[in-house]
Amino acid sequence: MANGKLVSRVEVPGGRVRWTYDSEQPLSTQLVQLAVGKFRLVESEGPGGLPLRDVVPDALVEPTAEYRRLTPDHLAWLEERLGPYPFHRYGVLVGDTDLGVALETQTLSLVPKADLLGTKVDAERNLVHELTHQWFGNSVALESWSDLWVSEGHARFYERLYSEAHGGDRLEAAMKTAYAAHDQWRKDFGAPAEPTEPNLFKRMRYDGSALVLYALRERVGDATFQKIERAWVSGFKGRTASTRDFIDLASQVAGEDLEGFLRPWLYGAKTPPMPGHPDWVVDPVT
Ligand SMILES: [Zn+2]
Question: Both 150 and 245 in a single domain?
């Protein structure tokens, strides 16, 4: 099984089988998915007849069905906010593995079985996170790894927004907690757009970067924020884009220069004040 569409399956001399897949649309190299094993293909349809196919080990088809069936709802919820899903198909590859993380492999997110066998709130957070990446990080790809905050920040932001509306924790409470830790995270992991750790995937790239988007939304208002988001995913569809591009686009859509606002949030050593929340405080760095 691989990303995209199965084009052919041909028996070749020597008792082998050649499987050919077409990625159909530009594909980020770190999002190639190639799985070899015994899987069942579970096909269904998403909004507008979008082809869905989950790839699941036999023994996990039934136990994971309840949460896998939520994908059309997740797609509809995200499309309402971000516009059309950017690819020709979607689905999850259920990993019969202890792998501690899921991965937004393009059009076929890798989800370890544990993510689909726990609570509904946790399962939906993980599923919505990887699905959000199809817009942020996949269709609009990273220009450099320092731009990872755009991808993980958005995935975490929408994951939390969805969860808040479906029985999970409140976004604002999570953001207040991240705000308190932000100076410490800047010191330990580098500012959101300037990672300093060899492992980029630290808390700063998740809640720490969702916090930058939260600050931007507080600054420009929800209507303008949504316009920025839609302009980003439509304007850079199928291309790479950078932090520079994000600042420029946000400024253009908002009709004001946001460089002076976003730059300290993204690169500064100290966390700026949170618009609309003058009472929020940053904990001292230890
Ligand atoms: Zn992610």
Answer: yes
